[in-house]
Structure formats: C-alpha cells, structure tokens
C-alpha cells in the first residue's frame, strides 16, 4: 500500500512539474496567430460565423496558465475589449461581448473566478496576472495597432464607495494617473447616459485602476482605458438596447 502511495505521489509531482515547465504563451504567439489561427498549448482554436463575418477563438476551459478566451474578428476596427471579472462583476461579459460584436476586433475574457485557486505562482485575477493569454494578447494588439485603445470593463458597488462622488457615480473612467482629451471625449458622450460620469483624477479619486497589470507592461500612455460601471447602470445596459447602443457608440467613436 505504501509503495502504491509513493508511486502515486511521484506521478503527481511529475505531472505538476511538467505542467509548470510548459512555456507561457507570449505576445509573439498571438502575433503569428493573427496570420494563421491555430491551437496554442491548452488554448484550443475554434472558428465560427460566416465567410464574411468570421470569428476566430482561442479557448482554454482549464485553469492552466490562467485559462481564458480570446476572440478575434478581423473585419472590425482595431480596439480591444478586456473583461477580467465576468463572474465577480455581473453583466460585464454581456456588455463587453456586445461591444466586440458591434465594434472592436479583439476581446479577452476570463474563464475562472478571480478568487479561484491558481495552478501556478500568478493569481487567476486577470487584472493582476502578469502572464497568460490576457497580457500576451494585449501586448500583441498594442504592437500591431499602436494607436488602438484597450477598454477594460469592471463593475463596482456604489454603497461601498468612500466619497460622495463614488457613491453617485455610474461610470468612472481612468487612464491611470493622468488623462487626455480622448477620455474627455468619452466622458462627454457618456453624459447622455448618466450625468454621474466621472474621470479619475479630475472628478473622483477612487477606483482608478492604477495598480492594474496593464499599466506595467509597457503600453503607450493613455492607450489603456479602465471603465468602472455601477450595478444599476450595468443592469440598464443589459436590459435596454438603446442605452447599450449609446455606450458602444461612445467607445467606438473614440477608438
């Protein structure tokens, strides 16, 4: 019995060692994938849609290397939709998928809860994970489309905010520790949906996403736009097509 246990433990350790030794996906892999889509490690390739409206996908349902799904539609304009917390921030996947369908050519979303157990040293939270599909795809996109915008969608609870502005906010827009005219343009457009549309470092000083991993991977200034959406507004966007269309137009016109 003890021998069998030792063999089982040895095999398990070998499996973990093998899994850990597998190379991480890199931006160069995604760059090549744009030209010739195929499976990459645990991410399996899938092709859907019509000839003139093809969607290429990479799908990893396991938690290996953080899991995740990448969607690519070459016919859309170059902008990137990031949904890192689809399970924690309710409706953000629906909102992000609609933006991808109508406007942007690339999208990545998580397949595991942000607090789920990770098989390696990196957290499963895509806003913190330093390697894997999310960071590789953003890097590849930025190199291919250096002027393209990266929109990351989050949800927040107004009741948990510390300031009056935060408690009233429906949208909090951030480009990090500074902002430019492009963010002002998005704010001006979103004011049609809510007068409580704020810019971090101008109107509000919380939920700026300044510790997000995408601020640490060498993107050009102001290309990454972090968007916090209140729960009532997320519900409205999901259930009210005209509001969703307005939201998409505000982002796509700026991209």
Give an overview in words.
The chain is of the alpha/beta class. It contains 8 helices and 9 strands. Strand 4 (77-83), helix 3 and strand 5 form a beta-alpha-beta unit. The longest helix has 20 residues, at 2-21. Mean pLDDT is 93; it is low at 7-20.
Features:
single chain, 255 residues, alpha/beta, 9-stranded mixed sheet, 8 helices, 9 strands, 35% helix
Number of helices: 8
How many DSSP-defined strands?
A: 9
> What low-confidence regions span 5 or more consecutive residues with pLDDT below 50?
7-20
Biggest sheet: strands, sense, closure? Answer: 9 strands, mixed
Coarse morphology: globular
| Rg over alpha carbons | 19 Å
Q: What would the average pLDDT be, to the nearest integer? A: 93
Order of helices and strands: HHEEEEHEHEHEHEEHH
Kindly report how far apart the N and C termini lie: 63 Å
Query: Which percent range fits the helix content?
Result: 25-40%
Q: What's this, in brief?
A:
By secondary structure, the protein is an alpha/beta fold. The protein is built from eight helices and nine strands.
Topology:
Blueprint: H1 2-21, H2 27-35, E1 44-50, E2 53-60, E3 68-72, E4 77-83, H3 92-102, E5 104-109, H4 133-144, E6 149-156, H5 164-168, E7 171-174, H6 181-190, E8 197-199, E9 224-230, H7 231-239, H8 241-254
Parallel strand pairs: 4-5, 4-6, 6-9, 7-8
Antiparallel strand pairs: 1-2, 2-3, 3-5, 7-9
Helix pairs in contact: 2-4, 3-8, 6-8, 7-8
């Amino acid at each position: 019995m003890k021998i069998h246990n030792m063999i089982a433990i040895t095999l398990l350790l070998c499996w973990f060692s093998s899994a850990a030794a597998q190379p991480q996906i890199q931006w160069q892999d995604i760059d090549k994938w744009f030209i010739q889509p195929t499976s990459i490690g645990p991410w399996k390739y899938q092709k859907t849609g019509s000839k003139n409206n093809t969607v290429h996908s990479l799908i990893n349902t396991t938690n290996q290397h953080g899991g995740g799904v990448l969607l690519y539609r070459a016919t859309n304009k170059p902008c990137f939709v990031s949904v890192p917390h689809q399970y924690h921030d309710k409706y953000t996947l629906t909102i992000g998928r609609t933006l991808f369908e109508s406007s942007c050519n690339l999208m990545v979303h998580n397949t595991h809860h942000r607090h789920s157990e990770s098989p390696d040293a990196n957290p499963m939270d895509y806003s913190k994970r330093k390697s894997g599909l999310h960071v590789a795809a953003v890097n590849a996109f930025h190199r291919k489309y250096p002027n393209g915008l990266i929109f990351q969608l989050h949800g927040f609870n107004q009741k948990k905010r510390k300031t009056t502005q935060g408690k009233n906010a429906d949208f909090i827009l951030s480009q990090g520790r500074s902002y430019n005219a492009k963010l002002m343009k998005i704010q001006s457009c979103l004011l049609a949906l809510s007068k409580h549309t704020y810019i971090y470092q101008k109107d509000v000083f919380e939920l700026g996403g300044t510790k997000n991993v995408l601020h640490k991977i060498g993107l050009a200034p102001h290309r990454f736009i972090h968007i916090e959406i209140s729960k009532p507004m997320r519900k409205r966007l999901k259930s009210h097509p005209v509001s969703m269309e307005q939201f998409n137009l505000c982002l796509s016109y700026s991209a």
